[in-house]
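Box 4.2: Ligand-aware structure prediction
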Amino acid sequence: MKIKLHWQVLIAMAAGTIFALSLGEKALFVAPLGTLFLRLLKMIIVPLIIFSITSGVAGLGDSRTLGRMGAKTFGYYFLTSILAILIGLAMTNLIKPGAGLNLSGNFQAFDPGTLNKPKSMFEILLRMIPTNPVKAMANGDMLAIIFWSIAFGFAITRLEGRPQKFLNDFFQFGFSAMMTLTRGIIRLLPIGVFGLITKAVATAGFELFKAVGLYMITITAGLSLHFFIVLPLVFWLFTRINPLKHARAMMPAFLTAFSTSSSGATLPVTMDCIENSAGVSNKVTSFVLPLGATINMDGTALYECAGVLFIAQALGADMGFAQQLTIVLTAFLASVGTAAVPSAGLVMIFIVLDAVGLGDNAGAALIVGTMLAVDRPLDMFRTMVNVTSDSIGAVVVAKSEGETELYPE
Ligand code: ASP
């Protein structure tokens, strides 16, 4: 009997947890399995994005279709990110995790100077246009790669005859080859997850978790609300399809996001689930998902907002209405600019802190250091939320484009 992939992965997760808890740091010898698997996933991201977006945009045919799909995609992404941020805002105001936080003790353990502060939001957006696309590809600069691929795909739609057919075929076939490679790598998911989870559990600093327990509870509660209630509701409202069908189709991607903490690394798996299990067309999948993995991060958006309010509460800095509004807007921008890699969202918090005048505050930097130390489990969950929102976006757009063959099984 063949065990379904997601069950294999769940078993691997449980095995990794037990293995790490019983052997402690000695269990780390299996960690390279996770590293190898991550490298395999990362190996395919850049070519996958180039082939998928270029073939997707070229396949849309004309600028009207591109404009329509683009508007729907961005509209959906904006809507769900703002909903997520409002949840973060409400939760933090309700639970007040930062009030009464003791700033001495644990906080001295971290050197905030080691944190790499992000560039300004403006610079991040400016770098979306690569002066040298090859360099952008070599650096894995996702926004720049996406911009270039959309532009190039669009140029293909303007060609005619043989040149157009040749380039269309080239990118379409390249995309098929990348997806075939993806499917091969996904077979190794249980082994990779075993290594990744073992490492995450064996290196977790459980003592610190207690010190900032309320903060972790606040974020987890907010993410849960968004993941279990808001997103399924949005899905149902737009598609009238049972959200459980979607959850079933997405299971391997959920588990990959959870284990890798990177929506970028999860992208190949998400695309496979959405195209092959959810039955969304190639046209929509290859346009909406790579874009979503890079700019649509609901979990991260929620986190930026809740995280900054938590820091403000801990410092006793009063945040009035105007400042909370600033936080909401900058949290959205920060989530757009966050790279789809582990803990990137936490570092982007400085952008939001800057906007409310706490960017250079030494106490704030100390707290961010501590947040970094306990970030892994939160990052796992928010990455899963990020990926879920992208995938729902793909189905919502597909449905609105009149696709009917969804969830064939
Ligand atoms: N790890 C997240 C992701 O890749 C980003 C973040 O740190 O919030 O989606």
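In the box above, the bound molecule is aspartic acid. The domain at 5-400 is CATH 1.10.3860.10 (Proton glutamate symport protein).
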